[in-house]
Backbone:
């Protein structure tokens, strides 16, 4: 597991937890904040639980036909238009190196 904690100037403190090689599959996406959290469970589900100051609500968002299809469509459009991607290969590589380093040092 790798954990990334961030402090924004506004005082918001989100955290990102990534599980690699886990014996359990959490199948969820969670954003933890200072006063609440967002949880999508299962990961590719259409409902998002929003908790804020002890209040809960569930937002329903229609699922894409395939969870990754918007990402694939954007990537393909970038190639077809000969544009630079939103995130460079160098940046993606650096993120992968940081995650691998954090994972192996845990």
Residues:
């Amino acid at each position: 597991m790798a954990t990334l904690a961030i402090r924004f100037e506004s005082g918001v403190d989100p955290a990102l937890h990534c599980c690699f090689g886990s014996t359990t599959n959490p199948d969820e996406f969670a954003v933890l904040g200072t006063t609440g959290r967002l949880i999508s469970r299962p990961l590719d589900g259409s409902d998002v639980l929003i908790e804020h100051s002890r209040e809960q609500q569930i937002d329903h968002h229609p699922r894409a036909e395939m969870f990754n299809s918007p990402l694939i469509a954007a990537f393909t459009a970038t190639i077809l238009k000969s544009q630079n991607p939103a995130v460079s290969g160098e940046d993606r590589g650096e993120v992968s190196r940081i995650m691998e380093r954090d994972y192996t040092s845990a």
Observations:
- The mean pLDDT is 80.
